[in-house]
Design goal:
Layout: H1 6-24, H2 28-44, H3 56-66, E1 70-73, H4 78-87, E2 95-98, H5 103-112, E3 121-124, E4 127-130, H6 134-139
Helix pairs in contact: 1-2
Keywords: Membrane, Signal, Transmembrane, Transmembrane helix
Protein name: Membrane protein
Signal peptide: 1-19
Length: 145
């Protein structure tokens, strides 16, 4: 769990250090702007921007029941961030599995990607798709009830 927060914490600490240096040199406006950029980067790379993760077995069980795809992801992955942002509110309709928290999820991803933990890997009807186009993923969602 702590591994997921390393990058966001580093962004926060670096942003604070740079902002403090700018404040000391009398450039408080630039310090505020730069700190805001670092805070946004930290937020984008944190697990908070993703819907709540569940275990791989539970996600696959739910997917079989409701037909929704399963997304295997990890914090800090720029392709996962791209998928999450481009899906918008539709992302909440998918089942998300953080492979750093769930060893079974990591095993599913390795099995689908020749032993590599390449994410995002999207499981649709039991078939894995590595780094698919977000529009394609949106098209795989069942109609909203």
């Amino acid at each position: 769990m702590t591994r997921a927060w390393i990058l966001p914490v580093l962004f926060g600490l670096c942003g604070s250090a740079v902002a403090a240096g700018l404040v000391v040199s009398g450039r408080s406006g630039a310090a505020v702007a730069l700190l805001l950029v670092f805070v946004l980067l930290a937020a984008m790379h944190s697990p908070l921007v993703y819907p709540r993760s569940i275990g791989a077995q539970e996600a696959q069980r739910r997917s079989a029941a409701d037909g929704r795809p399963v997304v295997f992801w990890r914090p800090g992955c720029k392709y996962c961030i791209r998928l999450r942002i481009r899906l918008g509110r539709s992302a909440r309709r998918l089942h998300w599995v953080d492979i750093w928290r769930d060893p079974a999820g990591a095993a599913v991803v390795r099995a689908a990607n020749d032993g590599n933990e390449t994410v995002p890997t999207v499981l649709v009807a039991g078939r894995p798709h590595t780094n698919p186009d977000p529009e394609w993923v949106r098209g795989q969602l069942p109609p909203a009830a």
